[in-house]
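hi! just following up on the protien thing from before. the input was this:
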Amino acid sequence: MDASTVNGKKVMQSMRADQTPSDDVLQVERAIAEIRAGRPIIIRTGRENALVVSVEIFTETDSGDALKTLIDWRKPASFARLVLPAPRLRHLGALRDHAGSIVLPEPNVQRVCTLALQLAAKLDAPIAPLTRMDEAGLEIARIAQVLPAVVVVPCLSKDVPASIMRVGMDAIFHFRHYQAARLQIVARAPVPLEGAPVTEFVVFRGGEGLRDQVAIIIGKPDFAQPVPVRLHSACLTGDLFGSLKCDCGDQLRQTVRHFAENGCGILLYLDQEGRGNGLSNKMRAYALQTQGYDTYDADAIIGFDQDQRRFDFAAVMLHQIGVRRVELFTNNPQKIAALQAAGLEVVTHTRIIGRSTDENLHYLATKRDRAGHYLDAELALPTRAED
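and the predicted 3d structure came back as:
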């Protein structure tokens, strides 16, 4: 992929061909805000309209008035449905690899909360395959980083108050790609760090998360040579508070120190909390981990696959800075493959090993055994049989 410029004013030419029109993007951004605020939206196509609301707005003690209002707006001869992702359906007892929907003939809030949230819940009705509208509802929930479970109500747009936000279905599906394609530098400044006094922060607008992305350039890299690079997903608990449950904070600080001591490097600090699930869902998963579930099983119970992150926009950031060849610092083979797929040459990769603690040993072993992370004898991790 060739960049038209590397000064942050334009994005890669190969990603400009099918950008979503700006008015559609604005609709999606507003729809994200509505979903996160607990308000319904209407997803529309040329022929169909459906009310969509996050299950997060409901609690088991609700009177059900909000759900009843939505269902009262349904299109004649149609039913509301609860849309759940495949990992959650598997937890409920269904043997399936795809998301599905469950009919809601009545506004039963307790049933919705049970199926979407309760640990001991079991499937109580047949599962229907998803429509494209259902898929769009799940996608907007994922983008908004709320619980990946939505109620979808087919409706006639004219019967629903004009105050409810409308958004095009195709715009939702194109949004992530457009966010990567429109990524641009919005600010940059020198920020001397302890142990790394020659450091520049470059802030990008767009990308994967809900906040800005940051490239931290340590020293003076020679862009004609392979540049040491780390893609670091934000981890509030580990990076800022020194959580013992993960190795993220150690990896962050060790990388900065290594780059400073060895001349240069670039750390991309990416808004991908909780492997892209968002902070609230990460805390939901942590609560399940205290009950004995590993990091991936906990995410699956909530409704997430093993890793929601995408790294195409990280490649765009590197291209805009001027990087073409990298020495990648990571334990994650997915990051290597993602940068290679995006057209960057990964010359070498180096592991970043944090501390092992009583609290994170099982977590690290799980990443090794279930996601193929490059973690082994240095940490004296338990074998699968010992987990």
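Residues 1-20 have pLDDT under 50 and may be disordered.
The first strand starts at residue 41 and ends at 44.
cheers
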